[in-house]
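Notebook, bench 3.
Goal today: get a predicted structure for HGxxPAAW family protein from Streptomyces milbemycinicus so we can plan the truncation constructs. The sequence was checked against the plasmid map this morning, with no discrepancies at the termini. Length recorded as 82 residues. Pasting the sequence as submitted so the record is complete.
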Amino acid sequence: MAGNNHGHTPAAWTGVTIAFIGFCVAGAFVVLANPIGFWAGMVVVALGGVVGLAMRAAGLGMVPKRQPQVQPAAQPQTQAQQ
């Protein structure tokens, strides 16, 4: 994966960082047995995904590469044998 620059954009780094913080918050509140805090952390995890997608839409993500369209090869025509 390192060869194709997967995830090396500001949108990816920001989204993953926000989601990681939300995961840590949710994990801390699981240990503290506080369901409201857990769900608040899960909201932050989802917010990380939304922020990443919004930043990608704003042009801070990786531009998708267009794959060339492969045309099917023409079948050679054979002459009918008489």
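The chain has a mean pLDDT of 84. The longest helix spans residues 35-60.
Flagging this for group meeting.
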